[in-house]
Amino acid sequence: TMKQIALYGKGGIGKSTTSANLSAALSDQGLDILQIGCDPKRDSTRMLMHGRLIPTVMDLVRERGDRDLTVGDIVFEGYNGIRCVEAGGPEPGVGCAGRGIIATFQILERLGALKGDIILYDVLGDVVCGGFAMPMREGYAEEVYLVTSGELMSLYAANNICKAIKRLSARVKGRCRLAGVICNAKNIENEEELVSDFASRINSRMVAFIPRDPVVQRSELNKMTVIEYAPDSSQAAAYRTLAGSVLENTRLDIPEPLEIDELESLAYEY
Amino acid sequence: TMKQIALYGKGGIGKSTTSANLSAALSDQGLDILQIGCDPKRDSTRMLMHGRLIPTVMDLVRERGDRDLTVGDIVFEGYNGIRCVEAGGPEPGVGCAGRGIIATFQILERLGALKGDIILYDVLGDVVCGGFAMPMREGYAEEVYLVTSGELMSLYAANNICKAIKRLSARVKGRCRLAGVICNAKNIENEEELVSDFASRINSRMVAFIPRDPVVQRSELNKMTVIEYAPDSSQAAAYRTLAGSVLENTRLDIPEPLEIDELESLAYEY
Ligand SMILES: Nc1ncnc2c1ncn2[C@@H]1O[C@H](COP(=O)(O)OP(=O)(O)O)[C@@H](O)[C@H]1O
Ligand SMILES: Nc1ncnc2c1ncn2[C@@H]1O[C@H](COP(=O)(O)OP(=O)(O)O)[C@@H](O)[C@H]1O
Ligand code: SF4
Ligand SMILES: [Mg+2]
Ligand SMILES: [Mg+2]
């Protein structure tokens, strides 16, 4: 059956880098992958598209309406046949990102393009409003992975996402569950222990520890994922290990968010 | 008359660091300052409050309703008498950040606390939806400063904010105008020329170039602004110069946003 997973986390934490490399590693195993960027930055699929910022669904809907859009207008084939979509951002100053994200999913569904072995949603997690929670509320993102580092503010964002998952998991449509925590390292002291401790306190577990490695920047300069640019690197191996964990994962939990003072004392403990 | 200014920019670009130091520099000139954080991270006023994350208005409204809130519940005095408020984030998964921000302003108005020589709004600019544009739509943020670096994605966020200002400047209530561009350096090649060029192409100007300086991290470790921790440093001088420019500024423009390909070629040119 089709697996629908979402990566949520603070802006700049490494969601898109992790998503693109995860998609690439999964496609190397022969799986049919659809990656949908749900961040107004619209750069989720950039490294899969060799540096190109593909047209966004929201821009196209604003220019031409959604009636006559075709699959070819909004779905682009990137590295290894991975299908790429960018939802884009709301109409500046007036729109709602949530309405645009849902509209994107409904258009893909209507066109019969919301399919694959795995659909990967890359979603901004700074603002856990009704808008950005749409992929969870409407039952699209069934397995949520939190991307975080050991920094207090990125744990704070991850904890907020847990509050949303907990609240939404009680809804009929909400099949959303927390599938695990991915630590994308920022090289702070005792980071692996800290994030692993955080993960178990919120009733989950750390499923991957991705080192901070300059090969990521070198791959970006060459407009490729690490999987494509440096397939034999230890960093590519880390993304492949993550791909294996995602495929094998059967643990889906309802998280237990922490209070702010518990979060602060956890961060200071390490 | 009271000046109402807002700093908008991409997450992590340095809005809160710049806001807190700007407020501190302005308060050193004897001015009465109110700083309001409008970012779910709720850490806008942290260095003014010696490391404390003050209670947010949205959390208090969710716990106790807004009827019986007093000024003492939501306004905290920080460095040099600067009054600090944090709007906080929406109810995770269901709320809208915009409704919370507006509710915060209305509660402060009702309590007679939305006053001072300068009110400084520190607003997230990654998502320029109707929610985060509220300070501009409702006529609170009259002078908007864009905080950006020379990186493509931070210029992209700044350009999106310009689209919102342009669109909202035509409304009756919308007195919002672009007052200038603040470059918070990330030490990329030819950054000052690039950001200055960007500013003039959008019909504005660069009002400050703030160096990237490790004294910011040292001040943070001591839970203070640079103005308080290292008042004689060149970095403190840069924030004081910004304060002077903000006080003297009379230029308020309606911006002309760039197309995405013009933005990309500008970034690659440098
Ligand atoms: N494991 C890593 N090692 C080194 N740099 C990284 C790593 N993960 C992300 N980065 C860097 O961080 C930047 C931001 O990551 P990105 O994936 O765009 O974040 P997000 O999608 O969460 O906003 C990228 O440009 C990339 O260079
Ligand atoms: N001029 C600067 N020099 C060095 N570091 C800076 C500077 N401005 C910001 N920073 C660093 O960047 C981080 C993010 O800045 P912050 O003000 O929190 O961003 P924002 O409010 O836009 O999310 C801060 O923790 C600070 O350490
Ligand atoms: S729900 Fe979220 S995305 Fe929509 S307008 Fe409100 S803050 Fe913006
Ligand atoms: Mg991203
Ligand atoms: Mg901030």
Give structural attributes:
270 residues, 8-stranded mixed beta sheet, globular, homodimer, binds magnesium ion, alpha/beta, 8 strands
What does this structure look like?
In chain A, strands 3-4-2-5-1-6-7-8 form an 8-stranded mixed beta sheet, sandwiched between helices. In chain A, α1 crosses α10. Chain A has about 270 residues and is an alpha/beta fold. Chain A contains 11 helices and 8 strands. Helix content of chain A is about 40%, strand content about 15%. Chains A and B meet through α6 of A and α6 of B. Bound molecules: adenosine-5'-diphosphate (ADP) (2 copies), iron/sulfur cluster and magnesium ion (2 copies).
Summarize the structure.
The structure is a homodimer of 270-residue chains. Chain A is α/β, with parallel strands linked by helices.
Topology:
The structure is a homodimer of 270-residue chains.
Chain A: E1 3-9, H1 15-27, E2 33-38, H2 57-64, H3 71-74, E3 76-77, E4 83-86, H4 97-110, E5 118-124, H5 134-137, E6 143-148, H6 152-168, E7 177-184, H7 191-201, E8 206-210, H8 215-221, H9 226-229, H10 234-248, H11 260-269
Parallel strand pairs in A: 1-5, 1-6, 2-4, 2-5, 6-7, 7-8
Antiparallel strand pairs in A: 3-4
The complex binds adenosine-5'-diphosphate (ADP) (2 copies), iron/sulfur cluster (SF4) and magnesium ion (2 copies).
Iron/sulfur cluster sits between chains A (96-98, 127, 129-131) and B (96-98, 127, 129-131).
Helix percent band of chain A: 25-40%
Number of helices in the DSSP assignment of chain A: 11
Whole-number mean pLDDT of chain A: 95
Quaternary assembly: homodimer
Bound molecules: adenosine-5'-diphosphate, iron/sulfur cluster, magnesium ion
* Strand order in space, largest sheet of chain A: 3-4-2-5-1-6-7-8
Largest sheet of chain A: 8 strands, mixed
Kindly report how far apart the N and C termini of chain A lie.
Answer: 41 Å
Biggest protein-protein contact in the assembly: A-B, 38 and 38 residues
